[in-house]
Amino acid sequence: MLDDLPIFPLSSVLFPGGVLPLRIFEARYMDMVRERMQREAPFGICLITRGGEVGEAAEHEPVGCLAHIRGWDMEQLGVLQLRAVGGQRLRVLERDIGANGLIRAKVELLPDDPPMPIPDEMRDCVVLIRRIVDELRTREPDPERRMIAEPCDFESAAWVANRIAEFMPIPAPAKHKLMVLDEPVVRLSIVHGWLQQHQVI
Description:
It contains 5 helices and 7 strands.
């Protein structure tokens, strides 16, 4: 349980173990990031259901993901580039909107996905994600700037399902539905079915 977690509503979905680049320029989020970095603490990312990423505090899904800051840069004055890596999933129990529009929430942390092997009939997902990872490593030799976080776990149904889901060209609400599923093999099965339907594998 976390009693005072800053929440960043976004139109993107962060999966556990996933990488999400963020562009921070609003004062409330600049202050949030500064405080989180000083404390070496994460913040929460939840998918927007109503509203926008800037301006008034948006409505968002109750289930999201912890975001750990793993790198930052400020090439342009007043614009902070962050590299966030997903941690545990979370469920918002209560939320409060501060005077500056920043959402702070009481959240419960959801259990990590159990370790589950990949069924033989879905092994072609492993071939696909290995190819994606190889391309990412070739394109970006610096692991701290790469759009995938090490270490890779090609034998984990949850890890493979999450990584492929991140790259699938589907709407954010559909990605969110995948992220909140508690059964990693079910998540992988849905991903596998989509890939077959669209003749990716």
